Amino acid sequence: MRLSAIGDVCHAVAMINRIQTHWPDAEITWVIGKIEYQLVRLMPNVRFIIFDKSQGRDAVRQLRQAVAGETFDALLMMQVALRANLASRVIRAKQRIGFDWARSKELHWLFANKRVAPHQHAHVLDGFMDFADALGVPPVSQPQWQIPVSDEDRRWAQQQADRLGDFVVISPTASKAQRNWLPQRYASIARYLFEKGKAVVLCGGPGVLDKQTAAQIQTFSPPVAADLTGQTSLHQLLALLSHAQLVIAPDTGPAHMATTVGTPVIGLYAHSNPRRTGPYRDLDKVVSVYDQCIEEQQGKPWTALPWGVRAKGDSLMARIDVAQVEQAIDRVLG
Predict the structure, then answer these.
(1) For residue 119, what are the β-bridge partners?
(2) Can you list the residues of the chain whose pLDDT is less than 70?
(3) What is the DSSP string of 28-71?
(4) Fold for the domain defined by 6-135
(5) DSSP 96
(6) In what order do the strands lie in the sheet with 93-98?
(7) How many CB atoms lie within 10 A of CB 5?
(8) In degrees rounded to 5, what are phi and psi of residue 45?
(9) Which of 41, 51, 134, 242 is the most buried (most CB within 10 A)?
(10) How far apart are CA 1 and CA 48, in angstroms?
(11) pLDDT for 88-115, tens place per residue?
């Protein structure tokens, strides 16, 4: 059971692929959010139950109906939010596996009868892999992702890539405005990439914040080859990211989608610890001011604080300057 969000669903895919690799006959049911389902809906040998949290009690009723008469060998409770914990009560399972005590929040521990092993300072993906460990699935040296997309979406992405040539994707919008970098600085980075011979593509979801952020960037007249904000499905975006030379993004879903297709990511972080939520394969490329911000606010380094503590403030991302991102680009692209 993992309802949201896009980045966390990408992490969960790696855990499911691990199970399927070692136990190809395992019957897997995934309770997932409505939007997130659109990313993984073509995964083979997975039965999906959509939980639309906007429907409130009706969503729980529909979940109860979907699993009526079933008893699962194990329920992996991979979300600590109280809404998910309460909904999980309608699922019968011999083992209800939850997070360890240190990672349990919002009364999560009350709904589990078994817990994963403690894991200090674990990236979210590694924390999800702890559930496979609890099941006894053999370990893997590196996570693997298999998120199928249609041939039609692959052809669309190939057409875009052929038209653009060498291109870099900027996905500028996080779920909250305070986690976004400054529009004028994204525009400066677009110009820097253009000078290096790279086409620049803006992308994002159909939400108001995504469209406003893209529009604000465009007011600085950057050399953007294509603004696809709100114009792609998740599968089209995933296929497009597979052709990009680089993705630049704050803490947002497309950064983790890029990781699943092997595209390098420069993540921009101030509020959350990138060691926990950063692009899994590119933590060495992150541009982060989190360490400084959290120590200033808490009076101690992140190593002395509970794992996952966020820094607070509306202007923290402004502490990332253009030169830092340019240097990171040079390390990736030369």
Answers:
(1) none
(2) none
(3) EEEEEEHHHHHHHTT-TTEEEEEE-GGGTHHHHHHHHHHTTT--
(4) Rossmann fold (3.40.50)
(5) E
(6) 72-76, 93-98, 114-115
(7) 15
(8) 60, 30
(9) 51
(10) 10
(11) 999 999 999 999 999 998 999 999 999 9
